[in-house]
Amino acid sequence: MRTPFKEWLNEIRSASPTIRRRYLVIFSVGTMLLVTGVWIQYMRSFVIGSEEKSQSAGKVFTGILSAGFGALKEGGEHLAGQIREKIEKKRDITIENPDKNFTVEDLKPIPETPLPKP
């Protein structure tokens, strides 16, 4: 038994790539708007205090974004400070070997090897 929804899906499957791409964009945008709306409602209901519930969704969204970007900025500044500290730190490398294993004079000469003629 075919339902109208399955028939509609089969029409989209058999359509040209341009039409399928158009449906992909439309449904992707719709899904993003739905998820963003649910997220905003969640933030308004559970995360943000009751004194801010009267604000519009746009103000809540921008407030959450600014708080998120502020946290990212602080984290980035902290990371940059740690990297700068590592770069500016002076390193002293001391190689200590009191016993010489060999000297250049102790090496045997390498015999000359002629190159093959072309």
Molecular structure report:
The protein is an all-alpha fold and 118 residues long. Helix content is 63%, strand content 0%. Helix 2 packs across helix 3 (57-88). The model has no long low-confidence stretch (mean pLDDT 80).
- Low-pLDDT runs of 5+ residues are none
Structural class of the helices, strands and pairings?
mainly alpha
Order of helices and strands: HHH
Helix content range: 55-70%
Radius of gyration: 34 Å
Indicate the overall shape.
elongated
Q: What proportion strand?
A: under 5%
Total count of strands: 0
Our count of helices gives 3
Give the topology, please.
Elements: H1 4-14, H2 17-47, H3 57-88
Provide a concise account of the structure shown.
It is built from three helices and no strands. With 118 residues, the protein is an all-alpha fold.
Core attributes:
mainly alpha; 118 residues
